[in-house]
Amino acid sequence: MVAVQPPPAEPPISILMYHQVGPFASPSSHRAGYCHVRRFAVQMAYLKRLGYAVIPLDDAVAGLFDGAPLPRRAVVLTFDDGYQNFAEHAAPILRRHGFPATVFLVAERIGQAAEWLGDGQVKAALMDAETIRGLSAQGVTFGSHTLTHPRLSRLDAAAQRREIQDSRSRLEDTLGLAVTHFCYPYGDYDERSRDMVADAGYLSGLTCIRGAGNRADNRWEIPRKAISYGDSLAGYVWKLHMKHERKDRVRTHS
User: How many CA atoms lie within 13 A of 43 on its CB side?
Assistant: First the structure.
């Protein structure tokens, strides 16, 4: 059983959740799965101009749970699923600003298409191993998003364990590096999933619970703030400055 280990209440830390970044038309559904590249560029420029400290996920977890100092306005950038459009559109903007990011990969789907996307969504391409290793060499961090992107709470214990543990070893073989962060597909998990993530040795587990990272009960159930296609700059700023309270009931496609 995971011990409750609340992080410090201040300073609030915004762990932002993105999925696809690119030149998309307005989607009719799953809007949190898309960010137009023009808006993404404006958002990153805002962080730079206003002096936000965009920090690696490692530093955020150390500050929230291990007593390391956190900057006054800390932001973490996370991207779920490992889409090819991250490499094409998001990564160049991040490099221009010198921002770190963490991308969560579906280990058995590398180089394939995101078959879990439904409701008329395009089966978007996922990055291949060569692209992933190239981005890793440039400083992008990669974490596990399971083997196949299932809803973990619907699986039996053995299947959950395989998705959580085997994905880590598969990704470490691909990267030649330790994989220390985990993200729950669809934000769907139960106590078994959470405890298996802890037992597998991950330093963190990221959810789709809305709120500042400080609202976590423990390091394997960390909230994030979802950035959606419809977020104007004003909406983005509001999420950064004001939307800190935890909202457990809101889940999103991930």
Answer: 31
pTM for this prediction: 0.92
The residue range of the domain holding 208 is 13-241
The two structure tokens encoding residue 142:
């990669």
Asked if residue 27 has a cis previous peptide bond (ω within 30° of 0), the answer is: no
Query: Is residue 116 one of the residues assigned to a domain?
Result: yes
Residues 85, 37: Cα–Cα separation, whole Å: 10
Instruction: Extract the tokens encoding 17.
Output: 């959740």
Residue 248 lies in a domain: no
Report yes or no on 251 lying in a domain: no
Residue 72's contacts (CB-CB under 8 Å, 6 or more residues apart) are 11, 53
Give the tens place of pLDDT for each residue, 103-149: 999 999 999 999 888 766 667 999 999 999 999 999 999 999 999 99
Give the tens place of pLDDT for each residue, 9-32: 678 899 999 999 998 777 665 777
- Nearest CA among 38, 12, 3, 2 for reference residue 244: 12
246, part of any domain: no
191: CATH: 3.20.20.370
